[in-house]
Amino acid sequence: QVQLVESGGGLVQAGGSLRLSCAASGLTFMNADMGWFRQAPGMEREFVASISSIGGTTAYTDSVKGRFTISRDNAKNTLYLQMDGLKPEDTAVYYCAAKGMGRYKYWGQGTQVTVSS
Prior knowledge:
The chain is mostly beta strands. It has strands at residues 3-7, 10-13, 18-25, 34-39, 46-51, 58-60, 68-73, 78-83, 92-100, 103-107, 111-116. It is built from no helices and 11 strands.
């Protein structure tokens, strides 16, 4: 079965950096469009960034453009999210997701990111 395991979350001061990783198994990773989402307390889960399987086309929500970078290493079956210039409003549980049948079908368990002011 498909497994997505996030890591790299933690507590950081505003202005700091973190790199999230998502190790994927049970799917042909190089063929999968991947994304990062986040959910803050009391809020709906929201899209953060995505990267396509072919060509590595990326997309970002406006609030993280210029600060976050999504990337993938197909040889390691791993998705990354480099987060720089972190702000308290970036505090959330971050999830990686893989598309199946045209929609985000597979989800990881999430990793907590907390940014202190």
